[in-house]
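[09:14] KT: can someone run the structure on this one? pasting the chain below
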Amino acid sequence: MTTSILTLLSLLIYFNIHLRAQIPHNDIQRLIMAWGKPGTPSDARSRYPTDFSRGIVPIPCHSHNDYERDVPLYDALQAGCISVEADVWLREGDLLVGHTENSLTSARTLQSLYLEPLLSILARQNVPGNTSESSSGQMVYPFAANVSGIFETNTSVSVSLLLDIKTDGQQHFQSSSSSLSHFARRVG
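[09:31] RB: done, structure tokens below
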């Protein structure tokens, strides 16, 4: 019985000390505990605009058949890869990504898995003042000395997107050229 009481008393003292340390006693502690929480003044200041790739060091590696990763493109970038590959098939005017014809779905397009995410990443990595809006209302990211690449640790490193064309070259080239020129116009 005495052991049980001593154990209970020890737990009460421990939790009293531990919980008391988590109660803010001054404004600095309150600010630190609330930092970045939605609806607080620090919400927008809690992250740097370039946090997307913070701490990732680009390395000369290639993500072969990248679309087979759990999270295409992003898994490769997280590992620091500066080259990713996608097998691309032309189906009914769409550029679909997959290893075989049986693996193709309308949801896994070159646009959705690679081109749009790359545009989004470049937008996040660059100061809003470096972009402009085209006459069609889309954002344009001009190539200039002050435009940053994907990796925050080395903003001058380029990332290569290798397209392994799996269907008829002539027909595929025309469709790819259209999609990629649209991408290039948006980038700069």
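[09:33] KT: thanks! The mean pLDDT is 80.
[09:34] RB: yep, looked fine to me
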